[in-house]
Amino acid sequence: MPFDGPLAEIDLDALVANYRLLRDRFTGEACAAVVKANAYGLGAEPVAAALAEAGCGFFFVATLDEGIDLRHAQADARIAVFHGVGEGEALAFLNHRLIPVLNSPQQLARWREAVRGREQGEAILHLDTGMARLGMTESEFEQVTQQQVEEAKIIMLMSHLACASEPEHPLNETQLDRFLILSEKFPELPTSLPNSAGIFLGESWHDDLARPGCALYGINPNGAEPCPMRPVVRLSAPVVQIRRLESEQTVGYGATQHFPEGTRIATVALGYADGIHRNLTGKLRGYVGNQAVPLVGRVTMDLLTFDISALAEDNVPERIEIMNAMQTVNHLADWADTIGYEILTSLGSRITRRYTSWSAA
User: Pick the catalytic residue: 153, 185, 217, 253?
Assistant: First the structure.
């Protein structure tokens, strides 16, 4: 059997379809895209290229390094950096035409000093309306003057929703009300509040710029409802060995499961070192075509074992799929008691990323 390693096939057509769904659902002026953490582990450069071709001209990343890397691939896009401008970073922001999200009075002062006397240097001012993570507090924002906004070349006010994936959570209304009141201080500035889930909260949360992230990549923006997004990732791995048990015996570490004589076991080159969570043991399925085969034994560092006894004798799989249209990132997240963000960003460096249109096939 050929051994060509684990493979994540990234469906850029599905990614673009998800962007268009979000953009069409959003009633505001424009829809950006969050491509931080290497586009949630899927590859920021090809992801941004596909989105740019679909009309997206505004991207958000987390760090200065991510912004610089993306600028090399996207010469004309607007690129904003959530973490803002740190000590000694202002010149790099200016040289690479990056937009800092200013989260504190200290960052605001640092940026004002850096752009004084320059034509370039726009920035976004972040207001904390209930997340208590990044952004100016209400009392800090009260001290911001029109002169400071002009000198720092502030182009937008933004805030971030803490509970948008839970539509009934009262904090959603609270944050919206706070943001509307605070933004009245500088009514000439555009605003940006909704993330992926915020777009689905309703038009009351829609303003000038949406910033979807997770939903672009097929993650359900509201776990209580069926996922409206197309799956973007198909993950498969090669079968290293197939064995037929010669007697009743256990499989894997801990001898946790017994299987009868004749059971066919396929061992696959994938494990928790590649981002397959160990607590998927006993829950994960593999797929050979449309047929599911159960994971048996524990998820280990480099290997998974599947019971393929239900397959026809002449069906000798060379690869087994772990994520596809039938078993998406959302299934793995539920079974691992985590979120889709962690599943995707955990996919390891041993997994080759390939860009294709598998879901349309």
Answer: 253
Q: Would strands 249-250 and 352-356 be described as parallel, antiparallel, or unpaired? A: unpaired
Distance, in Å, from the CA atom of 104 to the CA atom of 101, rounded to the nearest integer, reads: 9
What is the rounded distance in angstroms from the CA atom of residue 194 to the CA atom of residue 211?
Answer: 6
Second CATH level (architecture) for the domain 32-217? Alpha-Beta Barrel (3.20)
- Out of 19, 36, 217, 272, the active site residue is 36
Q: Is the pLDDT of residue 4 over 90?
A: no
Could you give the C-alpha distances from 53 to 13, 66, 146, 303, 353, in angstroms and in order?
A: 11, 20, 37, 38, 20
- Are 70 and 44 in contact by the 8 Å Cβ rule? The answer is yes
The ranges assigned to domains in the chain are 32-217, 233-360
Contact between residue 203 and residue 211 where contact means Cβ atoms under 8 Å apart: no
Tokens of 81: 């950096």
Between CA 10 and CA 17, with CA 12 as vertex, the angle to 5 degrees is 130
Concerning whether 153 is annotated as a catalytic residue, the answer is: no
Instruction: Tell me if residue 272 is catalytic.
Output: no
Could you report the per-residue pLDDT of 243-278, keeping only the tens digit for each?
999 999 999 999 989 999 999 999 999 999 999 999
Give the class (CATH, top level) of 233-360.
Answer: mainly beta
The encoded tokens of residue 168 equal 């009934």
